[in-house]
């Protein structure tokens, strides 16, 4: 897509002298930013039609999401699970798979970590040993769950979008079944939950902040996955398979293993998000694990154009929208759905902006030549 | 923490030089000017149910001079609610937070209460433990089963068949008590009345609620009541099928102009006014408020077109009796498996009733 725009060497008066890599980078930054700006304008129009002040709206987003230390930490905390679930969509997307199942992997990962913790808590194991075991259990269960979708896709020809989405509903049902059944804590009368892990097993906040460790984990894993996708043979093979499956097969690449591995990595990311929901937020597993982070992550990855590094700032943007959403309700007397409207406009604008790749006049020789 | 946020805002407004001078007087002025009360709902505030019942009370509170009200809807039971509470405290200067959904309490209300000891937090469910929980937290709840008893009285005298239907969310104590009280109310006026119950398994599952309503009507029930978060679908389905209905949580009269009898509502405004007055006069905000008809914490929706004149008279008398302390559960009562569950007369606030895990004889259905 971006290659056609940047590699041409035709002389043209208004053409910028850019090497293909920089041109692609500029394009990948300018188009999403322009799309964001366009959605802000469209949304302003929407607000004006409703008789609300757009400037006040964006000022409140600033106040609620960025302006003070409290607001910024609010944004960071809300971004933490979205980084991990965003990665869970971004990684399989590089191999051409649309995996919608992060929500299910998150729920089951969180459940798994809460369940393996119970014997360790009861036996009085040290927390430093227990927490990594819980994290591994969450990642393993999430990984296997999404790995199923990858396996079904490659070896049985089942569409991974459908299967992963349906697996989410099964995951939530399994969680509810276990939490309301055998693993229900008898003390949880009106809201079924597993046994509370107790304050010692809460992973707590990063020093000097009120933001839990899931944020740091998300950023580190985003960097690791970027290295994996951009700087290793695995990532290279995955991108080839994503670009042209037949060609990848003809080259003898193990496409099936790549597909399953990508999905498993995605599931592990989402499972880890579930681990942090249990250890940093809830202290137990219950129906609140299904909080739609998995689905918002799809939007995050989409806006980040499936680049693991870009997932981080985009998750922060969505965190800020979430953090200021309450303030908008309170100060502007607007319904909760306001922020969903904004998210929807961003999503549609981004979809449209996809068509602009390779067609930006100042990066495209042909069009620049035509205009002069 | 209120002071800190005030300082921060003054800093932005008037610059660092004015900070030391302005912070204290501003804080003092706020205490005289009035108070800010924040309410957080788990769903939309116009849901014709649980959230609306609180939002309606907040609307009444809004009219009280000196009280500012801030509200947030659709806040999930995750760390999002902790952040919403903190945002109300930090950015709106809230003095009292009303957390209205069950799952908000542990750990979120507890954590925020510990972090902001000068802010009051009250949670709508009997969960506050005076021995272990922060002193600036607390609970309030109503014995809505008293209003369901009145529903039953009115339904018993408005039904032709004596077969009543009840859509229940989950087989937990509050729901079972409402269903059993509905039966006892109906039996107080029609000893042959029965209540057929269907559990949906979820607090909010409109499709299954509609199916259950249709199923109960197909089983010849001619009055439908319920305990789900939002009874909108149940009431509308009953109305569309031409049968009568009794409401729950909020005022649903407008949804069933032909068949609505009355509804069981909590009167949260009573509690909220007590909180507001305590805050404004600088007194201690009560940690625990609970009650029913005797202290004006529950009410019944004004009668709709479905209520017969006899029903209106009898329901009015039942309300007066409850205000006087007339017990609802009078033994011997058996559950619907034949086991004796209540021997003597139970006070309407008896702790034994909190352990209710059965359906009384006369209720058709099973908790499992």
UniProtKB/TrEMBL annotation, chain A:
Entry keywords, A to Z? Cell membrane, Membrane, Transmembrane, Transmembrane helix
Superkingdom per UniProt: Bacteria
Where is this protein found?
Cell membrane
Q: Name one GO molecular function term.
A: transmembrane transporter activity
* GO cellular component terms listed in the entry, alphabetical order: plasma membrane
What stretches pass through the bilayer? 30-50, 57-73, 79-97, 104-125, 131-152, 164-183, 211-229, 250-273, 309-328, 340-357
- InterPro entries for the chain: ABC_transp_permease
Membrane topology type: Multi-pass membrane protein
Keyword flag Transmembrane helix: yes
> Where does this chain mainly localize?
membrane
Protein name, UniProt field: Nucleoside ABC transporter membrane protein
Organism in which the protein naturally occurs: Celeribacter neptunius
Automatic annotation (TrEMBL), chain B:
UniProt entry tagged with the keyword Zinc:
no
| Signal sequence extent | 1-31
What's one Pfam family here?
Answer: Bmp
Gene3D superfamilies referenced in this protein's UniProt entry, alphabetically: 3.40.50.2300
Which residue range or ranges hold the ABC transporter substrate-binding protein PnrA-like domain? Answer: 36-286
| InterPro entries to which the protein is assigned, alphabetical | ABC-Purine-Binding (IPR052910), PnrA-like (IPR003760), TAT_signal (IPR006311)
Keywords, comma-separated and alphabetical: Signal
Transmembrane: present as a keyword of the record?
Answer: no
Name the PROSITE patterns for this protein.
TAT (PS51318)
**For this UniProt entry, what's an example GO CC term?**
plasma membrane
What name goes with this protein? Answer: Nucleoside-binding protein
Name its species: Celeribacter neptunius
């Amino acid at each position: 897509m971006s290659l056609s725009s940047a590699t041409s060497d035709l002389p043209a008066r208004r053409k910028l002298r850019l090497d293909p890599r920089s041109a692609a980078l500029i394009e990948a930054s300018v188009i999403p930013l322009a799309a964001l700006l366009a959605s802000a304008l469209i949304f302003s129009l929407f607000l004006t039609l409703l008789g609300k002040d757009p400037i006040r709206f964006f000022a409140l987003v600033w106040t609620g999401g960025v302006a003070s230390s409290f607001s910024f930490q609010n944004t960071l905390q809300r971004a933490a699970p979205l980084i991990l679930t965003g990665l869970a969509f971004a990684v399989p997307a590089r191999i051409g798979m649309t995996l919608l199942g992060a929500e299910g992997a998150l729920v089951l990962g969180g459940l798994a970590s809460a369940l393996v913790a119970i014997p360790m808590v009861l036996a009085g194991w040290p927390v430093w040993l227990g927490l990594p075991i819980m994290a591994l259990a969450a990642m393993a269960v999430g990984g296997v769950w999404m790995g199923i979708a990858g396996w079904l896709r490659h070896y049985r020809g089942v569409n991974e979008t459908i299967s992963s989405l349906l697996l989410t509903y099964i995951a939530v049902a399994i969680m509810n079944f276990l939490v309301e059944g055998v693993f229900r804590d008898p003390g949880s009368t009106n809201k079924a939950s597993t046994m509370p892990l107790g304050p010692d097993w809460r992973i707590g906040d990063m020093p000097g902040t009120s933001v839990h460790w899931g944020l740091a984990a998300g950023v580190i894993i985003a960097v690791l996955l970027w290295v994996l996708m951009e700087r290793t043979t695995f990532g290279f093979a995955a991108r080839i398979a994503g670009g042209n499956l037949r060609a990848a097969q003809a080259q003898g690449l193990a496409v099936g293993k790549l597909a399953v591995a990508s999905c498993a990595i995605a599931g592990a990311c989402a499972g880890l998000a579930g681990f942090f929901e249990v250890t940093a937020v809830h202290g137990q597993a219950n129906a609140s694990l299904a909080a739609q982070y998995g689905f918002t992550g799809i939007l995050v990855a989409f806006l980040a154009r499936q680049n693991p590094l870009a997932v981080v700032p985009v998750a922060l943007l969505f965190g800020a929208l979430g953090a200021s959403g309450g303030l908008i309700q309170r100060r502007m007397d607007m319904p909760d759905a306001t922020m969903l409207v904004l998210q929807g406009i961003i999503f549609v604008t981004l979809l449209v902006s996809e068509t602009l790749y390779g067609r930006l006049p100042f990066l495209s020789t042909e069009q620049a030549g035509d205009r002069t | 923490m209120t002071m800190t946020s005030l300082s921060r805002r003054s800093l932005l407004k008037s610059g660092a030089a004015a900070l030391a001078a302005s912070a204290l007087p501003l804080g003092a002025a706020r205490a005289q000017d009035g108070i800010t009360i924040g309410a957080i709902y788990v769903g939309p505030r116009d849901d014709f149910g649980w959230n609306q019942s609180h939002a309606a009370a907040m609307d009444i509170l809004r009219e009280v001079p000196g009280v500012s009200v801030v509200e947030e809807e659709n806040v999930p039971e995750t760390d999002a609610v902790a952040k919403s509470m903190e945002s109300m405290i930090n950015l709106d200067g809230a003095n009292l937070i009303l957390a209205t959904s069950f799952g908000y309490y542990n750990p979120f209300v507890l954590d925020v209460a510990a972090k902001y000891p000068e802010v009051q937090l009250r949670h709508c469910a009997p969960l506050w433990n005076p021995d272990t929980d922060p002193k600036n937290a607390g609970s309030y709840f109503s014995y809505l089963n008293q209003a369901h008893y009145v529903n039953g009285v009115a339904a018993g005298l408005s039904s032709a068949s004596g077969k009543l239907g009840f859509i229940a969310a989950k087989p937990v104590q509050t729901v079972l008590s409402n269903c059993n009280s509905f039966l006892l109310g109906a039996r107080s006026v029609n000893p042959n009345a029965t209540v057929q119950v269907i559990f949906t398994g979820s607090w909010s599952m409109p499709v299954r609620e509609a199916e259950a309503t249709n199923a109960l009507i197909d089983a010849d029930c001619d009055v439908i009541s319920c305990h789900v978060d939002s009874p909108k679908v149940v009431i509308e389905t009953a109305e569309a099928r031409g049968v009568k209905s009794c409401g729950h949580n909020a005022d649903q009269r407008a949804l069933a102009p032909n068949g609505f009898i009355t509804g069981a509502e909590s009167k949260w405004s009573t509690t909220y006014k007590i909180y507001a007055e305590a805050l404004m006069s600088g007194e201690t905000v009560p940690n625990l408020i609970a009650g029913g008809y005797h202290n004006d914490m529950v009410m019944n929706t004004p009668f709709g077109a479905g209520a017969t004149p006899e029903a209106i008279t009898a329901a009015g008398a039942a309300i007066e009796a409850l205000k006087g302390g007339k017990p609802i559960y009078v033994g011997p009562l058996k559950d619907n498996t034949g086991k004796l569950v209540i021997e003597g007369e139970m006070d309407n606030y008896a702790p034994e009733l909190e352990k209710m895990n059965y359906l009384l004889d006369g209720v058709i259905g099973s908790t499992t």
